[in-house]
Amino acid sequence: MKSAVVLISGRGSNMQALVESAPGLDFRAVLSNRPEAAGLAWAAGRGLATRVVDHKAHASREAFDAALAAAIDAFSPDYVFLAGFMRILTPGFIDRFPNAILNIHPSLLPSFPGLHTHERALEAGVRLHGATVHFVTPALDHGPIVVQAAVPVLDADTPDTLAARVLAQEHRIYPQAARWLAQGRVTVTPAGVVRVSGSGVSTDWAISPRDPS
Ligand code: GAR
Question: Domains along the chain?
């Protein structure tokens, strides 16, 4: 069975979705850069190991990343899932886990990398918004896309209502990506495009809101 750790900074609802809906992965630990992250209590309650690597206790980004990498290495995971982990990781950290770090981002990348994605989507007037699961590369919120889900933007939307509609899709597609990884079905082409093998499933097919798998 493939193994994983999850990195969080806050509430941890995507971490919960992963743990509950990707049973084919051995989740070995939940790590946070914030001691007060609410998701830590949920993880501990589920019997998962939890660790805090507080970024405020480290003098530089490199020192924090080295401590974080050491904490991750202690669990020897196949995959590292960023789930609302709000720290920019150094290239040196990312290079230590090649094609093994996944992130979920609340927009249809490459649109709206960075923060405040829902506000920016409303300001831009896009009619479709969504969420993206991608492999992490040194470029922020960039990297081979595993799966996306799109939602309509409604005239009455506020950033909060739009965020809630997107979050429901995040909770669907992140476990979906995790299940594909657990099944060994995900490859990245030399050009940096993800292919999902088997059963005629492709990432295009998976953007359907009615995706049952
Ligand atoms: C999620 O919406 C996730 O996509 C976003 O933070 C939220 C965390 O919620 N991540 C990013 O913006 C990363 N760039 P959660 O803690 O309940 O999973």
Answer: 1-97 (3.40.50.170), 104-213 (3.40.50.170)
